[in-house]
Amino acid sequence: MYNLQAPRERQLLWLLALTQFTIIMDFMVMMPIGPQIMHAFTISPAKFATAVSVYSWCSGLSGLFAATYIDRFDRRRLLLTIYALFALSNLACATAHSYPMLLAARAFAGMTGGVLASVVMAIVADVIPVARRGAATGVIMTAFSLAAIAGVPAGVMLGAHFSWSAPFVLLTVLSVVVWIGGMRIVPSLREHLASKPAPLATVLPQLWSLLTRPQHLTAFALTFIVMSSHMLVIPFISPMLVLSHGIAPGQLSWLYMAGGAATFVTSRWVGRLADRYGKHRMFRLMAVISMAPVLFVTHLPDVTFVAMLAFFPFFMVAMSGRMIPMQALLTAVPAPANRGAFLSANAAVQALGTGCGAWVGGLMLGSGPGGQIEGYGMNGLVAVTLALVAVVWIGRVKAPAGRDVARPVAAEPLGEA
What we know:
- By secondary structure, the chain is mainly α.
- It has helices at 6-28, 34-41, 45-66, 75-94, 99-127, 133-161, 166-185, 203-212, 214-231, 237-245, 252-277, 279-298, 305-321, 323-330, 339-363, 376-393; strands at residues 366-367, 373-374.
- A two-stranded antiparallel sheet has the order 1-2.
- α6 runs antiparallel to α7 (166-185) and α12 packs antiparallel against α13.
- The longest helix has 29 residues, at 99-127.
- The protein is globular.
């Protein structure tokens, strides 16, 4: 375990949060600009769902492949190399002029984003002790809030006033800035290289062993269930609001800004509560709370924009709140020597669940005579059913003896500026 001074640790955590911010914005911004993309390329909700899913599927495949090499390199060098490719992928998205080109660019972005997500969590697990990892995960998860407060609204406004490609131009610029920050802040992290890496000829059998280990399979199943539940609903909120409820595309930025502002505060609270009362207990609480807003948004009556503005923060807090204790719990499941590989494989499963949820959700939807979205209520019912399964299933996800993360602990504050 590395021993960084508190100021350096905070700088590193916030740099990783900004890295996650660009990754999450890259994925999230596709959803609110969905109406513009559907119009620009003349595609159906199902084809739009495919454009969202291809990112996740490629992210999953690249994350799974990363499990064969992520523990063979200095974390710093790997992070900076893959992040440079991520910046190029956003430039490719911005310059796509046809639907096939957009799919290819999104696939490229997914390949880089999948590896980056696992590297970020591997660094957190290397640097932060288990007792404070929930709070640290909460800091990293503020990237979701930052993306919702600043990134997505800025992307929506740019998309509404210029073109759907403008948000990806912004992402390219932001990625370059964060990459420069990474050069200055991220230290060399080589402790995991103390033991000689296994020969490549043994990597695939070892990966198979990693994937099929019972406690790992249980954790992967939880990840898949939760992400599928998320993505049955989230990608289609903006198209539904614009096409079925008459909300202007430019107004969507206010919804994401309000929701992001709320989760910016609550994500760290949820992380600390998970450390204090247990990851399992906090996940179950947030999963149950999330069911009400999911059912409401998927069976949305005719409401005013002001009412939707008041509701959206509650929805986003509930949905992001169940991710924080789950992510913190999963970092303690593998042995330290396999942590990077496990988190890469878990990121792959997470992306697979994301892609399958969005794809299946798109297949369940249709277009009405006036262009409105139909069938969204069934998406919500299936999402809630999966959340109930996750509430039961998380009891099977446990850390090995000696790394008990279910036991409440007294955690010190972490990551405050």
